Amino acid sequence: MSTSRTANLLVELFVEELPPKALKKLGESFATVLADGLKAQGLAAADAVVTPYASPRRLAVHVTGVADKAADQPVQHKLMPVAVGLNAEGQATPALLKKLGSLGLGAEAVAQLKKQPDGKAEALFLDTVKPGAELASGLQKALEEALARLPIPKVMTYQLQEGEGEGFQPGWTSVNFVRPAHGLVALHGEQVVPVSVLGLKAGRDTHGHRFEAKVSPVVLRDADSYAAQLAEEGAVIASFDARRAEIVAQLAAAAGRAGHHLQPIDDEALLDEVTALVERPNVLIGRFEEAFLAVPQECLILTMKANQKYFPLLDATPGKDGKLTHQFLVVSNIHPADPSAIIGGNERVVRPRLSDAKFFFEQDRKKTLASRVPGLAKVVYHNKLGTQGERSERVRAIAHAIVKQLSLHTLPYTVDDKDHFEVLDSKAQEAALLAKTDLLTDMVGEFPELQGIMGGYYARHEGLRDGVAIAIEDHYKPRFAGDSLPRNHTGTVVALADKLETLVGLFGIGQLPTGDKDPFALRRHALGVIRILTEKDLPLSLPELLDAAAEPFGELIQNPTDALLGFFSDRLAVSLREQGYSAQEVDAVLALQPTRLGDVPRRLAAVRAFAALPEAEALAAANKRVSNILKKVEGEVEAQVDAALFKEPAEGALYEALQAVVPNAQAAFEQGDYTASLQALAVLRAPVDAFFDGVMVNADDAALKANRLGLLATLHAAMNRVADISRLAA
């Protein structure tokens, strides 16, 4: 009996340049799916080490401990009941013989059958052995599955022609893949595995760097020599992660050579993209004229990153706040002895881009933001919701309503904005009117990512009132998870108004997110509103805000407040669970549908502190019992109690305890000390337990029953001001 041979496996698909923004996911998917396919067939162990490789021209995977043949698997077939398969003499019936025939067996197999209990009767079972998969067929299946499931952004169609290259199967064949494939490697140890895909037959030859490989092709000795041979003979760092780490190290070293306290811009997406563009990175230092630094650095940084894939260098000296310098880093794919030609070429290429940015900036400043307002009436926002001009007027009206609601409360002013509400309203009106005007500028037309940011620059250039420029810049905040919030009250008001206008308008015409589709980023807008209201602890009611936001639309929409409240509740619940709160804690607080979201963090903290008390579990269970009793009563139970109707000592004891506890809990609640309010209830555990042990609530006497229900309603109201603590019960 032969035993299987175990060795490490290497599979590589050599292709033309892959799309850089998709390379990382392509490499991870190729490796994971192929390895999972081998594991599922028993060719690789569950704990096999899987190493992905991905460079601009290759996808590969190394899997440890792959067998050339999977172990045979015992299989038990349930055939049929004994009474059906065997006659009275114990001979096989035609039905049994037919079943055996379907398994490729004859009458001789009857002697191998086993009788085993199957429910109330006995059944016939046949034990067989399923041969384990051979590596060639198993790898073929896994490879095809890996290619079929690649997250390809866009498929190409190309044809293979006879004689096109070594390794190609003959004849004309149309192939659909992300990029034309030119080579396939499949090595089990040092042996080639005979598989084929995309018109290619597997071999051991691959190719290194287009210009710097020492040999071509690179003939791989075995599966384990892949990365080392490509690095030594092919001048390629095959691992995406290793190449990325090398770029990070070279960027840091080059920044140090460029000057003290300089550092490359931190941009993970750019780093991934550049890693996907080079096979052997070489970081070089470039420079541009310092006169360009008069242009807002966001413009220069964006054009260098987006158009040239450069890493701008920032000054990290304390007090410089990451100010852009006139130097940048280029990640080249070649290592010439004299890099001056590469550096000079990149400097020449970036100069026109920076000149364009400078030109746009200078041209834009020739017109005021106010002069652009009429132009917003010509820009369609949504065919059912009108133009950007109409939208700006709605945002102004919503901002006014927000300030009006704020004026009813004491607001903790920040250091830079101590104006009265009348001035806040005036500033918010001005900022809301001008906030979208930078959409009509040349700079934002070229770089849409700069909307808001450029409006802030142009507002400061015009000398608009303190706070208005910041509000224009900040009104999109938070733009993404973890982004900062608006810096002043004016910006906060306009940001809220802008997000509420978007949510109310689109919900009002039925443009709701569905599944993973959210083309208008309404989930992000909702989370932005939630963060502003909670983190700034604003004394605003969400239902009142939504109603106020719906008014400026008039008959354009149906008021979507109810639907939006549910939407906000779902978003808030997800956000809180991501912050580490348990589902029970979140459910307990949100069950009361708090209208002031700024209260939610304090309520959650109070619930968490209460849950840690030794009395919490019993009180939560009792509260759940009270809730269930009150739900079964027809009509609303009033929290009214007549002490003269008490019959049992436990009734009076609970009533006295409530009389002592409720005022303190209520006072703490009204002062916003939710933790103290909840913890005051801890002393109720003993009288509550005694009440349920010694009192029958559903008494025959109607007056007695109503009085006891009133006592429970009083208890329920006292226990559920901060949160529905019954949700904490197991």
Description:
- With 730 residues, the protein is an alpha+beta fold.
- It has 5 domains: 6-70 and 134-232, no CATH class; 73-130, no CATH class; 240-364, no CATH class; 371-580; 607-728, Orthogonal Bundle (Isoleucyl-tRNA Synthetase, Domain 1).
- It has 26 helices and 20 strands.
- It has a 5-stranded antiparallel beta sheet with strand order 2-3-1-9-10, covered by helices on one side. A 4-stranded antiparallel beta sheet has the order 15-17-18-16, with helices on both faces.
- Strand 9 (181-188) and strand 10 (191-192) form a beta hairpin.
- The two termini are 58 Å apart.
- The relative contact order is 0.05.
Q: TL;DR?
A:
Helix content is 45%, strand content 15%.
Shape: flat
Number of domains: 5
The DSSP helix count reads 26
Average pLDDT works out at 90
Largest sheet: 5 strands, antiparallel
Query: What portion of residues is helical?
Result: 40-55%
Radius of gyration computed on alpha carbons: 36 Å
Number of distinct beta strands = 20
User: Which strand-content bin applies to the residues?
Assistant: 5-15%
- Which structural category do the helix and sheet elements fall into? alpha+beta
Distance between the terminal alpha carbons, to the nearest Å? 58 Å
Strand order in space, largest sheet: 2-3-1-9-10
Write the layout of secondary structure elements.
Elements: E1 6-15, H1 23-40, E2 50-55, E3 58-67, E4 73-81, H2 82-85, H3 94-102, E5 114-118, E6 121-130, H4 135-148, E7 156-160, E8 173-177, E9 181-188, E10 191-192, E11 196-197, E12 200-201, E13 205-206, E14 218-219, H5 226-232, H6 240-258, E15 262-264, H7 268-275, E16 282-287, H8 297-308, E17 311-315, E18 323-332, H9 340-364, H10 369-372, E19 380-382, E20 386-387, H11 388-406, H12 421-434, H13 442-446, H14 453-462, H15 468-474, H16 489-508, H17 522-535, H18 542-550, H19 561-578, H20 583-590, H21 600-611, H22 616-631, H23 649-670, H24 674-679, H25 685-694, H26 702-719
Antiparallel strand pairs: 1-3, 1-9, 2-3, 4-6, 5-6, 7-8, 9-10, 11-12, 13-14, 15-17, 16-18, 17-18, 19-20
Helix pairs in contact: 1-4, 6-7, 8-9, 11-12, 11-16, 12-15, 12-16, 14-15, 15-16, 16-17, 16-18, 17-19, 18-19, 19-20, 20-21, 22-26, 23-25, 23-26
